[in-house]
């Protein structure tokens, strides 16, 4: 709606400017036309005829119509009033004065050129005073007198707001601005009326809250009658005269010292009382312990006396039980000895039987082995008898490079090593021939092994 108002204002001003430009343009054209005509005419007759010709007419009618047309949007724009948030308005008529009713935030229509609107801030405001002269704060200094006549500086803050429903009364009856002309004098007056009811020390120490409460009640009632709603009244600080403050500080220190000494005395008394109580408690505990110990001894004596009645029969039963246990152990020992002897006999018989079985098994094994060896030797003898050169081949295969000593028969008949050693030591070499003139392969191989072994010896 505010945009519409501004657009209407711009439209009206534009149309009014267009009418003015139209009139000026027509006047300008008429002047130019007259100047050109006067320059072209020569002679008095022509000049007389030119003067008799009417100039270019100005379009006054069209301009007046445009002016009337411009007045309409301007008047409509002036009739629109927009009240912002946090504010309220009072409608003021040029004929009847302040009109009843409050205009709240939003869009309102008023009579243009007759009614006007005065805005008031309905948000909470704070009136603040200072206890001392503080150049940076810029607040008013509030000084009151106590009952002794001493001047005390008060730092007060009052939160208040205007009652929107009574803005007409405020506008018609209260001076403006309300905070400086109404709130400030009221607060200062009430505090100055109440302060003489108290002494300085009471205001500073014990009855400070009472003074604030009384002042808050009086300020709320006084300003509430004028349409001002008080939210809270705060008493932030007090400023005492310097000399009185020093004396009061010393007195407070002495009182604190006195209270401290009184507290220390009470603590000492309590400590003494505690010691007495602890001594009495210890005494009572010791008496109780002695009585308990005596009772325990009496009970123990009674128990021992009662126990002795049953001790002798019990001892007799224990002796009989010991005898029975000894006899049982003796019988058990005899039985164990008999069992051990029988076990040894059985073990010896088992050992003899085992030795006999082992001997029989060993004899059987020897007979079987002898029979097998005999059978094998018979078989080998038959094979060697059929193939005499087989033994030489077997010995040659089993010979090792590490062999150093060889036992041979004394006579050396029919033994292949005689020819090998003979050829090796005679230097004939491994290619010697046999009796029939042919080279023996086994002999040749054995001779080469023997020669290699001789070359390896250090």
What do you see in this structure?
The protein has 458 residues and is of the alpha+beta class. 64% of the residues lie in helices and 14% in strands. It is built from 11 helices and 9 strands. The strands form 3 sheets. Strands 6, 7, 8 and 9 form a 4-stranded mixed beta sheet that branches. The longest helix is centred in the C-terminal third of the chain and has 145 residues, at 242-386. The two termini are 132 Å apart. Mean pLDDT is 76; it is low at 42-52, 427-447 and 449-458.
Write a brief caption for the model.
The protein is α+β, with helices and mostly antiparallel strands. 64% of the residues lie in helices and 14% in strands. It has 11 helices and 9 strands.
Give the topology, please.
Layout: H1 2-40, H2 44-52, H3 60-78, E1 80-83, E2 87-93, E3 97-103, E4 106-109, E5 115-121, E6 125-130, E7 140-145, E8 151-162, H4 167-173, H5 178-194, H6 200-206, H7 208-224, E9 228-239, H8 242-386, H9 390-398, H10 417-426, H11 441-456
Parallel strand pairs: 6-7
Antiparallel strand pairs: 1-4, 2-3, 2-5, 6-8, 7-8, 8-9
């Amino acid at each position: 709606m505010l945009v519409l108002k501004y657009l209407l204002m711009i439209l009206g001003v534009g149309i009014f400017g267009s009418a003015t430009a139209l009139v000026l343009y027509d006047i300008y054209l008429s002047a130019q036309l007259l100047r050109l005509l006067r320059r072209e005419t020569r002679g008095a007759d022509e000049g007389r005829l030119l003067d008799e010709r009417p100039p270019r007419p100005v379009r006054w009618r069209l301009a007046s119509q445009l002016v009337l047309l411009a007045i309409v949007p301007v008047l409509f724009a002036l009739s629109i009033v927009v009240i912002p948030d946090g504010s309220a308005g009072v409608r003021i008529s040029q004929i009847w004065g302040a009109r009843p009713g409050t205009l709240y935030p939003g869009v309102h229509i008023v009579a243009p050129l007759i009614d006007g609107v005065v805005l008031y801030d309905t948000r909470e405001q704070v009136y603040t005073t200072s206890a001392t002269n503080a150049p940076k704060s810029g607040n008013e200094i509030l000084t009151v007198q106590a009952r002794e006549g001493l001047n005390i500086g008060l730092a007060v803050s009052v939160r208040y707001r205007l009652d929107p429903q009574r803005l007409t009364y405020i506008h018609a009856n209260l001076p403006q601005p309300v905070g400086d002309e109404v709130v400030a004098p009221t607060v200062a007056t009430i505090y100055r009326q109440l302060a003489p009811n108290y002494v300085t020390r009471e205001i500073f120490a014990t009855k400070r809250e009472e003074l604030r409460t009384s002042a808050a009640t009086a300020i709320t009632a006084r300003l509430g009658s004028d349409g001002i709603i008080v939210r809270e009244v705060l008493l932030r600080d007090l400023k005492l005269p310097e000399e009185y403050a020093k004396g009061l500080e010393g007195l407070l220190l002495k009182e604190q010292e006195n209270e401290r000494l009184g507290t220390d005395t009470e603590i000492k008394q309590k400590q003494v009382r505690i010691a007495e109580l602890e001594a009495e408690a210890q005494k009572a505990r010791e008496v109780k312990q002695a009585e308990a110990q005596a009772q325990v001894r009496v009970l123990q004596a009674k128990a021992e006396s009662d126990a002795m009645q049953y001790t002798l029969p019990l001892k007799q039963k224990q002796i009989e039980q010991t005898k029975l246990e000894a006899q049982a152990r003796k019988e058990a020992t005899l039985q164990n000895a008999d069992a051990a002897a029988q076990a040894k006999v059985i073990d010896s018989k088992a050992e003899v039987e085992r030795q006999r079985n082992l001997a029989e098994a060993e004899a059987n094994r020897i007979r079987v082995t002898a029979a097998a060896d005999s059978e094998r030797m018979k078989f080998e003898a038959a094979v060697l008898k059929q193939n005499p050169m087989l033994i030489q081949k077997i010995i040659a295969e089993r010979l090792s490079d590490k062999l150093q000593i060889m036992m041979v028969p004394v006579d050396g008949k029919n033994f292949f090593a005689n020819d090998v050693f003979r050829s090796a030591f005679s230097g004939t070499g491994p290619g010697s021939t046999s009796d029939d003139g042919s080279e023996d392969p086994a002999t040749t191989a054995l001779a080469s092994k023997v020669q290699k072994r001789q070359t390896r010896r250090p």
